[in-house]
Design goal:
The protein contains two helices and eleven strands; from the N terminus they run αβββββββββββα. Strands 3, 4, 6, 7, 9 and 11 form a six-stranded antiparallel β-sheet that branches. Strands 1-2-10-5-8 form a five-stranded antiparallel β-sheet, with no helix packed on it. The protein has a single domain, classed as Sandwich (Jelly Rolls), CATH 2.60.120. By secondary structure, it is an alpha+beta fold.
């Protein structure tokens, strides 16, 4: 009887540990929330799309590309964001600061610069209407080359 109780306790502990590990792993990436999608009526064929990107402490986005037509303006709402666009320098931007990405850019680094505080970013896309997806993972060859 004691062995089955011990086994049940160990199994429960293992399941709780696994669930906690999965929760931590899930929070290692960003959370993207749509904020606005609107055709730009005086510029036929163009749309304005805004998203809010929330980063938990230490969270990061994988290296990625945006829609080929997308011009992006990004504004740090809170916290601090480490960013690198194309072959430009890595930079840390704090609340109130902003940056842009030209069409066809590769966003090599996008992450919360803090391991203890959350960060939030507003990304505003001016994009050809229907040019989707807005974000795709960077090809592995590009990612590996940048790490070397």
């Amino acid at each position: 009887m004691k062995q089955s109780s011990l086994a049940a306790s160990l199994l429960t502990a293992a399941m709780v540990g696994l669930a906690a590990t999965q929760a931590v792993a899930h929070e290692s990436t960003e959370k993207v929330t749509p904020a606005l999608e609107q055709a730009i009526t005086n510029i036929p064929g163009k749309s304005l799309i805004a998203v809010v990107v929330d980063y938990a402490p230490g969270a990061a986005s994988p290296s990625h590309l945006h829609a080929k037509s997308a011009f992006i303006y990004a504004y740090v709402i809170s916290g601090s964001i480490e960013s690198q666009v194309n072959d430009g320098p890595k930079q840390i931007l704090r609340a109130g600061q902003s940056f842009y990405e030209p069409p066809g850019a590769r966003h090599a680094v996008s992450r919360n610069a803090s391991k203890t505080q959350p960060a939030k970013l507003l990304a505003v896309f001016v994009v050809d209407t229907g040019d989707t997806p807005l974000t795709t993972p960077a090809p592995q060859s590009e990612t590996k080359e940048k790490k070397q």
